Amino acid sequence: MKSPEAGGPIDAAGARRATVTRWRGGRIDVADDWLVDEVPVALVFNGISHAVMLASPLDLDDFALGFALTEGLLSSRAELYGIDVVPLTNGIEVRLEVAAACEFRMKERRRNLSGRTGCGLCGTESLDQVVRPMPAIERAIVVEPSAVSRALKAMAGRQPLQRASGAAHAAAWCEVDGQVGLLREDVGRHNALDKLVGALVAAAVPASTGFITVTSRASVEMVQKTLMAGVGLLVAVSAPTALAVRVARDHGLALAGFARGDDLVCYTVPERFGLGRPVMEPA
User: Is this structure's pTM higher than 0.85?
Assistant: First the structure.
């Protein structure tokens, strides 16, 4: 299968073919295009439905594991006993068999999270759940701006769903030199990051030895999920929010935004991006 825009091969999973009529250069053109797929995904823990998300139907085992960890439902991978992905006529159920401790946490913090591709906190029941306790980053690697630039360039070639549809986000875990180790895509930025965290844990990757780059803005929940993954640096291609910067600063997370080309803007802990105080030119 080929994207009419990119011209290269892509994976058909996660995209649907559509016939479109385009107006370009003063001419009408009818052509095949690809639309990102978006389906309801129910996360069911020990037979209890906890959340229904709109997500891309890719890497859903990673998604479920990452979601459960970053939401604090699972304290570790050891509390997950099994995952089954079950396609249904009206969506997909991801059924998790978990320890009793996880089921207890879920019942204590029940939320209705329908349609979480936009606002990650929609459906939160109380103010205490918005900025919940997070682990602090005590020690972290130092990443040079050139490594961030290298990672961004490498990510562009590893996003088949985005190349096909133009409507998918990506989250990547990168090594200190900027090499992309793992990458996951989804129609929602939170989902892409959850999928990445799940993939890191499933593969037993030492996440703290690298950094995370996301093709989106940095909301507070993106910061929280990065902290829960134990990663000390988060890079976004767009801006962070004020709350995201505050939580990152309070927990020792190095946060950068507007990472494009060779440029970035550091909002917290600039020394972890190899940025000291600028040398002032004499007057």
Answer: yes
